[in-house]
Please model this.
Amino acid sequence: MKKFSEESFRIRPSVSFVPLQQDGYYQFFLSDIRQSFNLAFSDKKYVKILTELDGSLSFLQLENKFSLTDQQSLGLERLFEILIERCVVEDIRIVALRSSDPFRRVKTFIGSYVPYHDVESTWKRISNSHAVVIGVGGIGSWVVSLLAQMGIKNFTLIDDDLVKLHNLNRSLFTKQDIGSLKTLAIDRMLSTRKKGYYAVTSIAEKLHSSTRLISLLKDNLHPQTVLINCADYPSVANTSAIINDAAFTLNLPYIIAGGYNMHLSLVGPTIIPRQTPCFHCISYGMDQLKVAEIEGAERVVKEHRNLGNLAPLAAISASFAANEYLKLILDLPQLKPTMFGKRGEFNFLTKKLTVEEYMPWDKCPYCSRGMP
Ligand SMILES: [Zn+2]
Model:
């Protein structure tokens, strides 16, 4: 029984297949992820097939056109198996199914990391995931927008604040939203983009305790839920401590989206309870390293609400959070979230991103109990 017959393979458009100096050796360069690997071919027929591989012929047609022996057919099957696994080739029939799919570019992106036949199921896992966004203002509105643009459908938005004129410079709200609950304004924004696609649960509350957060979430727990802290009231530290507690109880990953303080974008850590340093481990590490000026900046902001801020700086923090979310849900060994145990600062003036890494704290009240 043949493994392939009607499959019409092509080399993915982002991959180049080039001869190397050493005879018989060829490089596959995956330009989108800047990675390459080499293969040696003793039979030049395979090289000819790969050079012409544009999806116009099925596997059976390739066998006929190149008059492959049984042995060569088996070899070609094995070669395709390797190239599929390494995201070099794809079946053009599957790609054609996406031609009118609004998320086809996202799927093509995912196809750089998972074999083409797994792209659709991987995509479903992403789109069916559930983002709980706490605080949907300057950073949260961008986070929701970025996740929605990747196709994530399910949102729980927690914020009791109303849209005000002075929010418009750094969020995605418009003048028509002024006076409306931020959560409802975002719900409207999403339904304008793709009616009936998104499921938004709006919770018009300020986050006061982990008990409340747990009770809000525990009956509506989607298998792939990620908490994202974009709330800065009364402080990021305060809300992060609440979210940390709920995340450990419910065993959910969470991302501290950071914030924008004066002329810095703060890029927060990604945390998986009992696997990575948690909020308290990182806070302890920051105290030890005396890099607490971030906290100092927060205190200044609380006292002087009229400090400047900029949408591009808010969007940088949000963009990191949304990228981390995707990596968390994808859960691929070659694509781990980059912000485990890390905190970064992007400096507007220098355009430098400085990232500090923190270790687990051996006396952490959360991580030290029940550490595997
Ligand atoms: Zn900890």
Notes: The pocket of zinc ion is lined by residues 277-278, 280-281, 361, 364, 366-367 (CB under 6 Å). The chain has a mean pLDDT of 92. The two ends are 46 Å apart (CA to CA). The CA atoms of residues 301 and 314 lie 15 Å apart.
